[in-house]
Amino acid sequence: MYLVQSIRFLKPVFIGDIITTTCEIKEVQADRPVMVIACRCKNQRGEEVMTGEASVLVDSYPFVPRSRAPKQV
Asked: Is residue 73 part of a domain?
């Protein structure tokens, strides 16, 4: 579930454009099941057309951040 989202539209997108989206988990809050995700969209020419950030509620709780999760062997 989205809690907060911000988006910046940097360039126009046209019919026929091919858009590639990349998302990165920037933060996982240790005290509650919320993560912050940064997203970027680029067109077929590699031009950034949109950037944004969202805070989302993680579906399962308790959520264990990877940095605190037991290491797998």
From this structure: no
**For position 31, which CATH number holds?**
3.10.129.10
Q: What are the C-alpha distances in Å from 24 to residues 4, 17, 27, 52?
A: 16, 23, 9, 11
Tell me the pLDDT of the chain averaged across its residues: 87
What are the C-alpha distances in Å from 4 to residues 1, 19, 20, 54? Answer: 9, 23, 22, 6
Domains contained in the chain, number: 1
pTM to 2 decimal places:
0.70
